[in-house]
């Protein structure tokens, strides 16, 4: 089942900075609230942050702010800077259709998770994302789609409305905030995340188009894209081995490297080339497994702790509270399947 696929992929540090900027703008100490310092975006904003870690940060912030609409609000504050070089490429395209074409071409620079699929029907350009890389959850999806619409509106200077927006996540109790923002029908519990852009919108000129600057920025984007490591299964393999080792022993970098058939140093280097750190993968894998186990009412908290490699339930409870902002008991009471 797709719900069981661990979330994998990466996002740039500049996008993660969107959350820190949002919290700072609201007078909140982001580092304290999230329990983690702002990640360094690296040269040209190319530092990579695990998608599961991005999911965790958003969920932690939403829980501590008691704001399930955080993704919808956060996406509206996205600027070109949060998309790195690609944001400025889009800014300088001639029209919105050209901007979407560049988005497809350079997507990995801002959203290296599930690749977007483009298609057209009689009325619209359709952008669609599947579930092959797992379910990152409502906050990740809503931040991404809202940011896309907000950026299109900023580029054209118009309050554009898609024909429809579709999310794979459960329907919230109140859909009116989504309908009010997107100004179109918004559907939930759909097979894929999808947004339908009316064909006439694609011809709208952009306010700051500069063909000469666009050429320079595209060349830079192409060079940055070439620097990205190729997609592959290494991260997935590491996560699977971590999950397999957890009930019996602490999954160290050395233990995982031995089973993959690499030296510890080589595995560290290959993960680092993807902007991923082993410790973060281990924590993200533990968190995802914890949430999956807690949804099973047959498992006690003590059994979940043991499955995750904790000798004591109290250590698991502390870690879970750091990940999510709530106790595992409270999470289980809200999310256990019937």
From TrEMBL:
Domain annotation HTH araC/xylS-type: ranges: 236-334
Alphabetical keyword list: DNA-binding, Transcription, Transcription regulation
Gene3D superfamilies assigned: Homeodomain-like
Pfam families recorded: Arabinose_bd, HTH_18
Domain of life: Bacteria
PANTHER family: HTH-TYPE TRANSCRIPTIONAL REGULATOR GADX, HTH-TYPE TRANSCRIPTIONAL REGULATOR VQSM
Stated name of the protein: AraC family transcriptional regulator
Origin species: Spectribacter hydrogenoxidans
């Amino acid at each position: 089942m797709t719900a069981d696929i661990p979330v994998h992929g990466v996002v740039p540090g500049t996008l993660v900075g969107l959350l820190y900027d949002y919290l700072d703008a609201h007078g909140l100490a982001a580092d304290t609230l999230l329990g983690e310092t702002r990640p360094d975006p690296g040269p040209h904003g190319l530092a990579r942050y695990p998608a599961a870690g991005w999911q965790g940060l958003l969920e932690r912030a939403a829980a501590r702010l008691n704001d399930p609409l955080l993704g919808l609000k956060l996406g509206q504050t996205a600027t070109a800077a949060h998309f790195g070089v690609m944001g400025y490429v889009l800014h300088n395209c001639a029209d919105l259709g050209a901007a979407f074409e560049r988005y497809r071409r350079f997507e990995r620079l801002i959203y290296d998770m599930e690749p977007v699929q483009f298609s057209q029907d009689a009325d619209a350009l359709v952008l669609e994302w599947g579930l092959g890389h797992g379910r990152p959850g409502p906050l990740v999806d809503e931040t991404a789609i809202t940011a896309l619409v907000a950026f299109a509106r900023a580029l054209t200077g118009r309050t554009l409305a898609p024909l429809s927006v579709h999310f794979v996540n459960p329907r919230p109790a109140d859909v009116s905030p989504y309908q009010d923002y997107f100004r179109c029908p918004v559907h939930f519990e759909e097979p894929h995340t999808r947004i339908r852009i009316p064909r006439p919108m694609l011809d709208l000129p952009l306010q700051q188009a500069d063909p000469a600057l666009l050429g320079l920025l595209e060349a830079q984007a192409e060079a940055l894209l070439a620097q990205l490591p190729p997609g592959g299964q290494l991260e997935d393999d590491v996560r699977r081995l971590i999950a397999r080792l957890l009930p019996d022993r602490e999954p160290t970098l050395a233990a995982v490297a031995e089973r993959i058939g690499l030296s510890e140093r080589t595995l560290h280097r290959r993960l680092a080339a993807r902007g991923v750190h082993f410790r973060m993968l281990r924590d993200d894998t533990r968190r995802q497994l914890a949430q999956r186990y807690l949804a099973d009412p047959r498992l006690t908290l003590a059994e979940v702790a043991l499955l995750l490699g904790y000798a004591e339930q109290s250590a698991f409870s502390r870690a879970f509270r750091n990940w999510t902002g709530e106790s595992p008991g409270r999470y289980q009471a809200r999310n256990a399947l019937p």
